[in-house]
Design a protein that fits this description.
By secondary structure, the chain is of the alpha/beta class. The protein has two domains: about 5-210 and about 390-405, Rossmann fold (3-Layer(aba) Sandwich); about 230-385, Glycogen Phosphorylase B (Rossmann fold). It has helices spanning about 20-35, 50-55, 70-85, 100-110, 120-130, 135-150, 150-155, 160-175, 190-200, 240-250, 255-260, 270-280, 295-305, 320-325, 355-365, 370-385, 390-405, and strands at about 5-10, 35-45, 60, 90-95, 110-115, 180-185, 205, 230-235, 260-265, 285-290, 305-310, 330-335, 350. Strands 3-2-1-4-5-6-7 form a seven-stranded parallel beta sheet, sandwiched between helices. Strand 9, helix 12 and strand 10 form a beta-alpha-beta unit. Helix 4 packs parallel to helix 8 (about 160-175). The protein starts with 5 loop residues before the first strand and ends with a helix.
Length: about 400
């Protein structure tokens, strides 16, 4: 029997647990099932239920940051680097610390594969969306302080040094990424971003992420009566576009607005600002739920009327596919990755994310035509189970990784 290829999956959840972290965990689990001797190197926050899920199927090891704060941190980095030498392939799933990525590219670059969601927005926002990278200070500084410490952050992300630090990190990131053995983008849109930022077109392929039923034995159960809320799921950061979502909700006809609730599931640095916006708009029927369990999220998907996911420049977007498993249609942005998974007027509706009136009109269309919403939801479910399962995604990813090992 041939020896199993050794695979290390590396992921760091920067400040919050989200879709990228879920995918990294599932990739390590599914690739191990497909014959790899896989281990998961993980850093950052992780809910208890996901930690139990991961540790029950793969060996988990801590992934350190690459900017040490103590002698102990230096030792942890050295030990991790030494252990990673024994693997055949190192799969950077979405994101890790850029300093650690730089070390790995220098010493283990021939083994490195990047499963790319998008370039690090803190560095490249102006290249990605045309908005200044400085607009992300509200997320960059708290994240940096929580992981690297207040000393580093207060010095290098101060007003005077902020531009210099970003430019230096851009140069480091550019050199790092261009040394990777291969890049696998999670969508055609992500591949286009890689070309735009790093000027790389060759050696970049596409493998879509996948979803798995959150309740494998219950997804096909009869749907309960529709509840009185619309659902939005995502971190409270600028790109998720919650302000325009709230503006759209406020533009619904009075009858709909008084009878419905908007449930937002998410947390993040803009939570306080979003709460203030809700108050300023006088929206008394908008609810926020932060840090929900997987069981709670499942219940929210099952009970909602439909999903509204109008993020700006979302590289892929797992939320519409997760909702589709429960027969729910989605209203999504007509830019970025979501338009690759949602077929307009068939499995959902595509809208201009910067146009609240257009978003509101799409909401009204689904609210006033239950037959249409139900038909779209069922077609979305069929498509998700046919084309976007975690098993199908992992098989394609395994093929790409085996090409490297061979």
């Amino acid at each position: 029997m041939s020896k199993k290829a050794r695979l290390a999956v590396l992921h760091y959840a920067l400040s919050r647990f989200g879709g990228g972290a879920k995918m990294a965990i599932l990739q390590s689990i599914y690739l191990k099932r497909m014959g790899f001797d896989a281990e998961l190197f993980y850093g950052g926050p992780i809910p208890a239920d996901w930690r139990r899920r991961a540790s029950s199927e793969v060996e988990m090891r801590p992934l350190p940051l690459g900017l040490p704060k103590s002698a102990r941190n230096v030792q942890e980095i050295a030990e991790t680097m030494e252990r990673l030498r024994s693997f055949d392939v190192l799969l950077i799933s979405y994101v890790i610390c850029p300093f650690l990525a730089s070390y790995l590219s220098k010493f283990l670059g021939s083994k490195l594969v990047w499963y790319c969601g998008e370039p690090l927005r803190a560095l490249w926002e102006d290249y990605l969306s045309g908005t200044s990278y400085k607009t992300l200070k509200c997320t960059v500084k708290p994240t940096s302080s929580s992981f690297y410490g207040k000393t580093y952050s207060s010095i290098f992300l101060s007003g005077r040094l902020y531009d210099f630090s970003i430019k230096a990190l851009r140069a480091l990131d550019m050199k790092t990424v261009r040394s990777y053995r291969r890049i696998i983008a999670q969508s055609c849109y992500s591949k286009e971003l890689v070309g735009r930022v790093y000027h790389l077109e060759e050696n970049v392929s596409v493998v879509y992420p996948g979803v798995e039923p959150m309740e494998p034995l219950k997804v096909d159960a009869p749907q309960p009566p529709l509840s009185d809320y619309l659902l939005a799921v995502g971190a409270m950061i600028p790109m998720k576009n919650y302000v325009n979502l709230l503006r759209a909700f406020s533009r619904l006809p009075p009858g709909h607005r008084s009878a419905l609730k908007l449930l937002i599931v998410g947390d993040g640095p803009l939570k306080t600002a979003i709460q203030s916006t809700i108050k300023e708009m006088g929206l008394k029927n908008v609810m926020i739920r932060a840090r929900v369990s997987e069981d709670e999220l499942t219940g929210y998907y099952r009970g909602c009327r439909f999903i509204v996911h109008v993020a700006i420049h979302e590289p892929f977007g797992l939320v519409p596919l997760e909702a589709a498993l429960f027969g729910k249609p989605s209203i999504v942005s007509n830019v970025g990755g979501p338009k690759e998974t949602v077929i307009d007027k068939e499995t959902g509706l595509l809208v201009n994310p910067t146009n609240p009136e257009e978003i509101a009109a799409a909401m009204v269309q689904l609210l006033e035509d239950d037959k249409l919403a139900s038909s779209m939801g069922m077609k979305a479910k069929e498509r998700a189970l046919k084309e976007f399962t975690m098993e199908a995604s992992s098989k394609k990813l395994a093929e790409k990784l085996n090409e490297i090992i061979a």
